[in-house]
Amino acid sequence: MVERQIKLFEVSDVQKFVNAASRCDFDIDVFYNRVVVDAKSILGVFSLDLTRTLTVRCNGHDDRFDKFLQQYAVA
Hints:
- By secondary structure, the protein is of the alpha+beta class.
- It is built from three helices and four strands; from the N terminus they run βαββαβα.
- 35% of the residues lie in helices and 25% in strands.
- A four-stranded antiparallel sheet has the order 1-4-2-3, with no helix packed on it.
- It is globular, with a radius of gyration of 11 Å.
């Protein structure tokens, strides 16, 4: 299991994130505080506070998705 901290700034960023997550064949969760949503659900991701840093938890590995996450990684 891998966790990454990301920040999504625009609506298009959320759309790209959900599309990239949907291509993975393993579960991916996004959470902030106590709220956990499926990363493959656009409504779920939009329900989060996008002004905050989000944590992405991957229950598998995909090189393309890892490279995608690096674009939005928080240092």
